[in-house]
Amino acid sequence: MNEFSVAANRSFGEVVIETSGLAKKFGHLMAVDHINLSIREGEVFGLLGPNGAGKTTTLSMLATLLKPTEGTAKVNKHDIVKESDAVRRSIGIVFQDPSSDDILTGKENLYLHALMYGVEKNIREQRIREVLRLVDLEDRADSRVKIYSGGMRRRLELARGLMHRPKILFLDEPTLGLDPQTREHIWEYIRRLADQERVTVILTTHYMDEAERLCDRVAIIDDGKIVALDTPDQLKQIIGGDIVRLRIKNPKLSSIKELPYVVKVEQTDGFVMLTLKNSSAHLQEILGLVGNAESVELRTPTLNDVFLHYTGHEIREADAEGGFFERAARARSS
Amino acid sequence: MKMTELDGLYALWYREFKVFLREKSRIVSSLFTPLLWIVVFGGGLGSSVSLGGTNYQVFIFPGILTMTILFSSIFFGLYIVWDKKIDFFKEVLVAPLSRLTIFAGKTLGGCTDALIQGSLMLAFGVILGISYSVQMVALVMIFMLALASAVVSIGLIIGSFMESPEGFNLIVSFLVFPLFFLSGALFPIDNLPSWLRAFTTLNPVTYAVDGMRGVILGMSTFPVMMDLGILLGFAAVMLGIGSIAFSRMK
After folding, report:
1. Which of A65, A100, A331 sits opposite B93 (nearest CB)?
2. What is the rounded distance in angstroms from the CA atom of residue B112 to the CA atom of residue B97?
3. Is residue B32 within 8 Å of residue B77, measured between CB atoms?
């Protein structure tokens, strides 16, 4: 896990995003419930949560596309409500749904973006070539976006978001629905941006692996509230050990519960979930005490366990519906 | 206006123009209906009807020219609804451009589309035996531009409020057909019953038809310059309302 040691040593600059009591209400639905965040320059910051948790709404407010109901935020020292123009000049945003014009070619889309974002005339061409190379679309630059694959479109969106060298880049579900290879590509790329170009990246995701692999810090968000915020490693510390999952009939749990290295014991239909400190040293003993297990699974905790720990449900449960209602509510109030 | 705003204006126009050139079906479909009117309706009725010594087909030609501009201009607003759907518009709205620039860019794009279609229709007049002078063409172009900028604005205003293409079409149909039929495009407005006359006098599109008929055929109810004045006034009002509508858009 080299990446994490790199991440740990990384130093961040000044605070570039600060929210205070940022809230958005759609009708009765509190989509974003008074969020306080502080994000530093060069950080890759993840908003992790199920669809409908309020991630996209938060992003939209920071990008000045939605007005907060209460509270405000400063992006690059500018107030998102009072100085939205100045905010827009400091940011780039890549939406969840592709927003390129598919009748135009990739290059034309980039050209339009350069014009709209005031990229100087003498560097436009060079900048376009640069970002096309970065996302590996050079040879498809003159094809119409209509015939691009999903992954290519997303890469084009990313390229576009980077054209004007924003200080802050917002990415809404950057790898949603992409194949593993493309995701890997995009992660590397985002990482490089933050490390080398000092771009601050705020992304939303409901993928655990994305949050773990990519983000310096992760805010777990559920029902519009931030329930936990830390580095992925620190967040996993909260679980207090490794997780052992046993498939077992009639487990003898009473003796186990007393052991000093057992953090937590949970029993669900046919399975026993144990959280153990220093698991490898104690696994043998546990197996001896608990009885005849049909199968044993030992793993380090994931952010999914962390999510479960804080919210009492898994990230996937709230999926489709939550997103739908949030979207419907947003459509109505806009 | 800052340089970036001008670049942005150009970008928005450039995009509309590129799309217009690539979507050949847009041009074909928007010219099909007017051609049907002039060839079939005008030709059919013209074979037995003439008005004030002018063949009916030729008489309605300025009206059909108006129709071309009217329909293509107002339906241009539909593309903003599509832009919202494909999220292209979000990308535009989040750009550091003033809402006024966005409105101006869109309007310029729409007027360009409409004028290209109007010019093609104008050229068709030669087949009908109409001969043009340079001044005539220039003046007709000014009329078409004035009408286009007013009606593109109307389309964009409606489009800026609508979320679905169906809703847009519904509202526009209620608007565009009365505007067309009550404009005197298909009949002279001199001897109308008073109720109909009231409607046509109030309809700004009437002055586009009357003015262009005056320029092309030398027959008009009002002085041509009065027609142009009223039309320009109408355009100014609509452009004003359009920029307000856009500046309020989130």
Report:
1. A65
2. 21
3. no
